[in-house]
Amino acid sequence: MSRPRILLGVMVLAVAIFLTANRPAPAAEPAGEGPVERPISTEERDHWSYRPLIAVDVPAAGVEGRVSHPVDCFLRAAIDKKGIEPLPRAGRAVLLRRVTFDLTGLPPKPEEIREFLDDDKPDAYEALVDRLLASSAYGERWAQHWLDVARFAETDGFEHDLVRPNAWRYRDWVIDALNRDLPFDEFARQQIAGDLLYPGDPQAAVATGFLLCGPDMPDLNLQEERRHVVLNEMTATVGSVFLAMQMGCAQCHDHKYDPIRQHDFYRLRAFFEPADIFRDHPVPSAAELAARQTAEAAVDPAFKLAEERRRELEATGRNQFRDKNPDVQPAIKELLAELSADERADHADLVKRLKSAPKLPALPLGRVLSEGKPHAAHLYLRGDFRQLGPGVEAGVPRVLLTSSTLTGDSDEPPRARLARWLTSPDNPLTARVIVNRLWQWHFGAALSTNPSDFGVMGVEPSHPELLDWLARRFMADGWSLKKMHRLLVTSEAYCAASTPRDREWTAAQTEAGKRAWQRLQTIDPANRLLWHRQPLRLDGEAIRDAILAVGDRLSPRRGGPGIRPPLPPEVTATLLKDQWSVSGDEEDHRRRGIYLFVRRNLRFPIFDVFDRPDTNASCAVRHESTTALQSLTLLNSEFSLRAARQLAGAVVRSHPGHPRAQIEAAYLRAFGRPSTADEVRAAEEFLDSQSKRVRAQSREAIELALPEGVASDDPSALAALVDLCLTLFNANEFIYLD
Amino acid sequence: MRRGPLQINNPLDRRGFLQHAGGGLGAIALASLLQSDGLLHAAAHANPPRPLAPQPSHRVARARRVIYLFMHGGPSHVDLFDPKPELVRHAGEPLPDSVGAVMTRRKVAHNPLLAPVMPFRPRGNSGLEISDFLPHLAELADELCVLRGCHGDSVNHPQSVYQMNTGSILMGRPSLGSWVSYGLGTQNDSLPAFVVLPDPGGGLKGGPSAWGNGYLPATFQGTTFRSGAAPVVDLAPQSAIGAGQQAGMLDYLRSMNHRHSIERGSASQLQARIEAYELAFRMQSAAPAAVDLSDETPETMALYGIGEKDTDEFGRRCLLARRLAERGVRFVQLYSGDTNGWDAHNDVAQNHGLYCRRTDKPIAGLLTDLRRRGLLDDTLVIWGGEFGRMPMSEQGKGRDHNPWGYSVWLAGAKVRGGFAHGATDPFGLRAAEGKVHVHDLHATILHLLGLDHESLTYLHNGRDERLTDVAGRVVTEVLA
User: Fold this and answer.
1) Residue A606 near residue A540 (C-beta atoms within 8 A)
2) Which of A158, A249, A627 lies closest to B218 in CB terms?
């Protein structure tokens, strides 16, 4: 940013201190004693992430124009300076597995592998990418990335960890939005204020579930404190997810390093202050609403009065009960016991009368935000809900204010205006933040490696011009996520080898690759310049889904409330009673990981050991630990053995009586590539020695470890094949993507 | 502003990997050194990552390991470790107005005071007072260092369970055991560093987050063990798979992974995964051996109350704790109490009678056994709940939650035995002297382990996070 523009910015700031919501705010209480708000300095404002996006041209196309993809042109500019050459493009089998897992979270199917390896058309890879992006598996995969940052779960957490029966609608909304390529600006706006921007559109309202995904303690002693904690959490999350600003650090005091004052935090919170957050709201479609209204109109008004009176009585009983037992949710019997004898008789009579009332079609409920009563907004001293500070009005972080910040439809409620501002061209952060995340999800590491903290404690982007170019390109492409995916995964940087050799390379390529690898390892071992592709470990969801998929057992069912597959009793023993009631239909247990029930107090075991975040806060980067418990899970669990039996069954059925073809098929399914002669020989030797070991087992034991759906005339050989499949699931090649 | 190696958050970046995998302070220091020397690449290959490798402590440690006895539900200090003559004198009367407003969970502020349910007596040479609820522990009074001025911030169970375990009343922060594993690593190569022995009744208020790793890597989370032949989920192969069969698979896997790794320049994360299988294999025999009590003498079993109806279950877990500590597990946490546990709202005599009967003899047995084996000098034993209980009555004979003042005791690790530090007010309502906030307790525990609570940090979302947040004072008075 040039100096005169900074000056201009400062002058504008002097005039427009903060965004004022045009709706008259309720009279603030007399300003309490509070911290003095320090101005934002020019130096603070000049931090890289707050500057406007720079318009840069794609650099000249690498050394002598050998690269044409814009992403590569940026990367090559830096690589060329070192006088080095990146690793060549990976072979087709590697590319297919890489991009299929990346875009869909699933392994390529055997027929897809054959088809792609045989496809000589020059645009075969691009066609593959388009096919993957068009599959519904894409949304099911990428939704999990978003749900990580959205700290999505289907329970409250804390002691009772109560189920949020309608939380799944938000998960389905995210999947659906991604699959129909809802532009990201719209995706963001609806999550902030879909209810206000599209009144009457149930899906837009469901999107606001984002704000309510965090943990909550409904039975907290003081409901005032509960609301304070939830609103602060919501505010902090919006800051880190969309702006990569750690607003949460400023709830007790000014941010220690970044230009986020405590006032900024509570001004951002003020947008959410009027929200009605502690109950689910109806989210009917137009047809459902009409049906309900018609039915209601036909009901005798006497029934309506009776129903009202019944609810009133129950509410009285509930309140009295909870005064005495705040820890307990009263059963109907218990709350009735609180009423007088007359009231109880009245209640019984009403219930009897209401039995003959016509049943109204129930409206679906959603865990969504709704605008409630206007609510005075304050700063809270030291973040303590008991220490009311001065009143504040809704406003965006001052460091991001520009001259046009205040424009916009003046009749709109503040939260809707926040949504519009977030995705307006005035705000450089939203686009920068999301393209940086997309880069991370594709490449394993983001260009700026603290994707939710672009402040001074974060790391500056390794390729700042590329980041800004991508952000502008993203906006110019109508904020289309699919277009950005396609751009990134078709770059040479994405397609480069991750290893010093590739099975499909010629001898000359292999020699060149080896030399380049050795040289580059010493020049840039950390791969900051992106001269090779980083190998990635699959996450727990992809591992589980892949284990099911390679044995043809993954269910294609989609959507609806979270599924609870059976768990070992020692796992559920740590929970309260009935907190993991198993879903009835066995096929549901084999649905994709994204559809499994997300309980805050119990991470699904295989996801847990593979570093799934705990959903208590937005997670930008998953850890990648390597532990013995992971090995035990993959090696010993009933799930693994079952899946190995299914994979073995599938390959025996497809190649009956041909052990070698079975080995080849198992390799192809598990590793997504043909096996080598050496590997087949080693596998045959294993089967031979392993079937001898199997014979030491009892007949009953062997029966329990045979391929499924196959008649067995040589049980020990077949059991050894199951062991081969189980070993493949445990192989590094299964867990890592080249 | 600080710009250390911890800012590198890319999990596959070698520096980042070394940091995550190396975990402890030693590795961080090493990474920082190497980064500045430009030698990181070579080192990353020379030292395959060992997340739980023993790490040097900040200062000389008094304790090398911890056994934390967590009495879930909130044991009553005024009935166990904190004698209050005034409470006897004013039983039946309400708290005087001079006490001011009291925040309680169940609106008991104006209820009549309830005298201690069991009498207190001076015990041992020290004369430390302990009530008749705990006859066995009372004989070991000279080992105990009772912190009578403890206090926390919430009247709710889960928040207080979280605070006692993680320092924060919010869900999802790293637990004390995780911080200790992160700071010190493990002393064994076949068992986890942090083992939790939950109450078989289940239903801890707050759930497994109480021993979670929060934002620390998963390597540092508590691993739950239960009694019986298979203490860890999926520890043993499915019954259909014989031991020889599994060994065959592991051999085959090793050769497959070895070839795969060589083809990829022996990348450190691939090597780490090969090692993880070796550890898993060792754990398969080490963990069942650790929980197999058959090599204990009848005398030892009797010491813990194993074989007696009331004490058998908790006794077994106490003995298991000693066996794990002996085998180098850094942090063992035992929970006593199911969903309700020590939560004596209705009847202290009945509730605490039951839970004291279950735990008194096993805990005394544990201390005695640790002492005679020479383990107590460098093992820190902690006893406490998520809070204490109110001096006022609830429903006549019960007591409500009290986070404003309560007792926690320490033993071993050369803390001052037969000693009470701090005091509550005359009624036992609020900590009054020698106050020890949960942050101070944590700072003290880390100090005893040779860790400085202000230096044990982890950069998360742009902030150097600590177990003790921005507070914490080492209670030096407890150091002998």
Assistant:
1) yes
2) A627
